[in-house]
Amino acid sequence: MSKRELRNLAGKSLVGILCAITAGMLIVFLYGIFSRGIGVLSWEFISQPPRSGMTEGGIFPAIVGTFWLTLLSIAIALPMGILCAIYLYSYGRPLWFVKLVKLAINTLVGIPSIIYGLFGMAVFVNMLSLDVSLISGALTLAILALPLIINAAEEALQGVPKDFTEASIALGAPISKTILRVVLPTAMPNILTGTIISIGRVAGETAPIMFTAATFYSRRLPSSLSHEVMALPYHIFALMTEGSKGSLQAPIAYGSAVVLLLMVLGVSSIAIIIRYRFRRNKQW
Amino acid sequence: MQIMEKSFKTLSYIAALFSIAAVFGIILSIFLEGLPLFKVVSIQEFIWGNAWYPTHGEAPQFGIRNLLIGSVYATLGALVIAVPLGLGSAIFISEIATPRLREIAKPAVELLAAIPSVVYGLFGMAILAPFIRELFDLSTGLNLLSTSIILGLMVVPIIASMSEDALSTVPKHMREASLALGATQWETITGVVLPAARSGIVGSVLQGFGRAIGETMVVLMVAGGSAQIPGSIFESLRPLTSTIAAEMGETVMGDLHYRSLFAIAIVLFLITFVTNLVAELVFLKRRLK
Amino acid sequence: MRKFTIILLILTLAIGFAYAKKNQITCSGSTTVLPIAQAGAEAYMDAHPDVNISVRGGGSGVGIAALQNGTVQIANSSRPIKSKEVSACKAKGINPTPYAVANDGIAIVVHKSNHVKDLSVAQIKDIYTGKISNWKELGGASLPIVIVSRDVASGTFEVFNEKALNGAKVVASAQLLASNNAVVSAVESTPGAIGYAGLGYITPEVNIVSVERVTPSTSTVKDGSYKLSRKLYMYTNGKATGDVGSFIGWLQSAAGQKIVEEQGFISIR
């Protein structure tokens, strides 16, 4: 074997090994969490509030809290995000303004989540006196989700063939109608998958809700926007750090982690599958 | 009709304005809350001071040097792990793997990027740290090494998926030309594909850097929290983010300690903003080509 | 799609207003008081199903700030309120009123294998300020001391800092952990470690060191002969009345104090 062939083989094996190490580490990680948490899962665990000083019972209020936080924040961010993407896609003037918007979006993507938490605390909780509540948390998370949704929506809109728009406009339809009737419906599956992926991100965030929405223990389910809520990611953190009975509470933390992982990974897989199907069936 | 058109345009314009307002709101709020600190503590003292005793009775000290260096160490440690693994995986998936394997690997990488950081923190705190402590016979497993491993693991999917995107945009004919000239596949990868995708790869590493330095839950749970410059990879550290998260709850609203935590947020914001801007310029360079 | 989200929003609001009437008590603050407040809330709610009590951590400062802003009815605190906080409250027309709900001793803990049984306050100070760095200087095995402390902002640290350290600065190499629980588990797994935590958090997996020959116990904490003891408080705005008053009253009663003791703290009765 020549030296070059040998190097070829060595190089290819190297990246193969690196990929295998990555996969191996991630498998160890997932196995570590699942093997400790899966045994905790039961109907009682997902349908009951915590009992006996947070050492028994379930995590139902935390699941419901995370559900509402996620749903509300996406409900706020989605229309906003789509409209913003439409602006970038169809009006796009003046240019300096578009550049500024894009810079803003990119900045938002890069801001650490703890800063979102501080912002939410300073503005929603304190300044607007919304207190630590479902709505403070949802607004904070909505701003965190906004750039993700804008980016997904803009990419989806760009993916719609120009022929479609041109045909519609040539037929005399105004821009608004063209967008609402032609572009948006065509782009919707891609917008939705992008949104679903950001749902996964929002549901798992801890730092932004620490000071804006999360509570350690509440038996009641959130029934008003002004209630503070338990939330899965915060519950995991709180049990591991604030709980007073480590050995009894760790299993609950692992169980909560498994539930959170299943929720987040489940939702993201759905998005990926939809997108895959959609791309394959694309007719143009 | 005209009204419909107008209002639609206005509505989308407002939404675009809102995204700018959000950024300004965030910047404004952290600066308004943080800047008053510098009336009392000089910027130099804040950045270069080596003592972080924000609650000390008579003479509180607000020097974040050790915290800043802690953040940088943890982030660099994470990149030392994540860059080879992420880039290697990206090359493997994009250039070497069979199409079938690629079909599975790409979405898998994307899925992994969605794992919540608190779950990584849980793993690091309860499983990895005790393991590291036993393995090296240390006094604590909550140290720079554990932090780097967990942060690295978290950043791998980001670097892998973005680098993979960059590699797959390199036109096929460049590879074919190189192979036709008699280059081996490895020579094609290192000599043609990687240079062509360079800017995208650098961008992915910068994004990984931004993500790691801004990560809170992992460092809060795994770093150990000593406000010192770690002398070795086996010592504890206290990055900027975990300082904010751990102490914000205990401050008196509006006092110096509260302001100093917002001032840390300003530093953190500036770091990520610049990193992001540079990453963006790298990408823009590619777009202009 | 937008219609769909709007409908969802309206639905949420509708559900919200339909059920928002229940009697609600929110308490927030010290993580040390957290187990008492949580277990107390659980038992109280079992007896009074029409009341809901939500318990949040955060820290003593957060609790008092929230009381000051009128967003909680009860602020849990592991230290007496500071004069700065009192004046901030007064400025907003809030009159913080303390209710002691438990006694707590801050126990000094070391690893199971450590033979050091007693430390003086001066020795503890020397350890935490870095003057003593090896257990052999204290009559133990030759082993570097690993200092474990709480975050400098926590109520537990403040009391420890005042009563054991006299306000001296903890050496920078000390691990600063976010909770009592984290401190105890760190000491449990580290042969050279020393740490401190509220009595409620001490597990049998660590050794308690006596301070000035006094072991923290029910009687030594109650009569104050144990140096590192303190009271845990719930603060309310003015005199606690209504549901809040009956909750705190119940917590101070024999039935409530039984829960306090179950959580590892010491009764005030």
Model description:
The complex is a heterotrimer of chains A (284), B (289) and C (269). Chain A has helices at 3-37, 43-47, 60-91, 95-110, 113-127, 134-158, 162-170, 175-204, 207-210, 232-241, 246-281; strands at 50-51, 56-57. Chain A contains eleven helices and two strands, in the order H-H-E-E-H-H-H-H-H-H-H-H-H. In chain A, strands 1-2 form a two-stranded antiparallel sheet. Chain B is mainly alpha-helical. Chain B folds into two domains: 2-39; 64-288, MetI-like (MetI-like fold, Orthogonal Bundle), CATH 1.10.3720. Helix content of chain B is 74%, strand content 1%. Chain B contains twelve helices and two strands, in the order H-H-E-E-H-H-H-H-H-H-H-H-H-H. Chain B has a two-stranded antiparallel sheet with strand order 1-2. The radius of gyration of chain B is 23 Å and the shape is globular. The model of chain B has no long low-confidence stretch (mean pLDDT 88). Chain C is of the alpha/beta class. Chain C has two domains: 2-103 and 233-262, D-Maltodextrin-Binding Protein, domain 2; 104-229, Periplasmic binding protein-like II (D-Maltodextrin-Binding Protein, domain 2, 3-Layer(aba) Sandwich), CATH 3.40.190.10. Chain C has helices spanning 2-19, 34-47, 60-68, 83-91, 121-128, 155-163, 180-188, 218-222, 242-252, 254-262; strands at residues 23-29, 51-58, 74-77, 96-111, 118-119, 146-150, 175-177, 193-198, 206-211, 229-237. In chain C, strands 1, 2, 3, 4, 5, 6, 7, 8, 9 and 10 form a ten-stranded mixed sheet that branches. In chain C, helix 3 (60-68) runs parallel beside helix 4. Chains in contact: A-B, A-C, B-C. Chains A and B meet through helix 1, helix 3, helix 4, helix 5 and helix 6 of A and helix 1, helix 3, helix 4, helix 5 and helix 6 of B.
Topology of this structure?
The complex is a heterotrimer of chains A (284), B (289) and C (269).
Chain A: H1 3-37, H2 43-47, E1 50-51, E2 56-57, H3 60-91, H4 95-110, H5 113-127, H6 134-158, H7 162-170, H8 175-204, H9 207-210, H10 232-241, H11 246-281
Antiparallel strand pairs in A: 1-2
Chain B: H1 2-34, H2 43-48, E1 52-53, E2 61-62, H3 65-96, H4 99-112, H5 117-136, H6 144-168, H7 172-180, H8 185-196, H9 198-214, H10 217-222, H11 240-247, H12 256-288
Helix pairs in contact in B: 1-12, 3-6, 3-9, 4-6, 5-6, 6-9, 7-8, 9-12, 11-12
Chain C: H1 2-19, E1 23-29, H2 34-47, E2 51-58, H3 60-68, E3 74-77, H4 83-91, E4 96-111, E5 118-119, H5 121-128, E6 146-150, H6 155-163, E7 175-177, H7 180-188, E8 193-198, E9 206-211, H8 218-222, E10 229-237, H9 242-252, H10 254-262
Parallel strand pairs in C: 1-2, 1-3, 5-9, 6-7, 6-8
Antiparallel strand pairs in C: 3-10, 4-8, 4-9, 4-10
